[in-house]
Every structure is written in structure tokens, then in C-alpha cells.
Design goal:
It contains five helices and seven strands, in the order H-H-E-H-H-E-E-E-E-E-E-H. The protein is of the alpha+beta class. The protein has a seven-stranded antiparallel beta sheet. Helix 1 packs antiparallel against helix 2.
Amino acid sequence: MPIFWLQIKALASYFVKASTGSQNANNIPPAPASSIPNTDKIVTLARMAEIRHRVGIQGSAAEIYRLLTTDAGLSQWWTSDTEGAGGVGSVIYFRFGDDGPRFEVTELVTDRRVRWRHYGDMPGAWKGSEILFDLQAEEKQTIVAFSHYNWPQADDFLAHCSTKWGIFMMSLKSCVETGTGQPYPDDIHIDFDE
């Protein structure tokens, strides 16, 4: 069993002992029941997988924010068939051919942060996942810190999506720096089943 899982198991065991009222080896009294987290949730969170990318883009945070928050902007770098972008609570539909994922906009901080929550059933592995774009303006560039998190497991589909997100982050970079991105269906394909 990997060290990480042993640490999680030990942490969960500590909270279970604390909740039953027994003292530990250091004679520390148990924590009040109201302060003890649900150990099932701790283990579940520890098992969630995440995709992360960090890209420096020569462009303003305002320009990148526009590309992340409007139909016209999103269709220039992710998929050319995008609709529904708007304020918090809006649902964006991204089509890749006949179907595609939907995301609810859950957080917008002008020129700094965009967060979406997967909405619906397609693709199934994305259910419950969230996407976060954090923008940090620097002197010569804007850093885009991208996360697609709360995946139920790390598997081949996550690996595929991680590669594709890297490609789309480079499409976003190209869109800002050259004026031309590579949204679907003109993106770089990584296997012959796309």
C-alpha cells in the first residue's frame, strides 16, 4: 500500500478514535463531535484526480478573460460550436460534433478567475467535476493556471483529456498571441478515434 494511502488511513483512524472518546498516546483528549470531519469524505477527496496546466500568455488578463467568458471567445480556442456563456448561473453547451459537455458558470472574478461545474451526464467521467481558470497578470505575460478537478479516478480517459486540455491551452495561447486558435474540429488530434 503506498505511503499516501497509509497516511490517509492513519488520519481517518485518528478521527474515528477521537469521535469515540478514547485518548491517544499523547494524552490529548478527544475532539468535540461537531469538529470531527466525516472520514468517508476525507478518503473520497483524497482519491479524486485532477488535471493541471500552467501557461504563460503574452496578452492581458482582460483579453484572456473575454476568451473564457463569451461564446465568441470560447469558440475561438476550444470548440467552434459554443453557446450559453454568460454570468454566474448560465449553462454553456460545448458541442464536439453531435454532442458535448455542458458546464454551469459558478464563479466569475473579472480578469482573475473563471470557474465552471459540469452539468449533465456527458461525458460520464466528468460528472461532478469542475474547471478553474486562475489568471495572474505579470509584467511580461499573464499566467493561466488551469485545473479540471474532482475526477472520480485517474484512468485512460483522464490521460486523454489531460493531453487534449494541454492542446487547448496552447490553442488559447495562440489565439491571444497570434489572433488564431485551433478550436475543435481544427485542433490537433491525438488518436484515430476522434
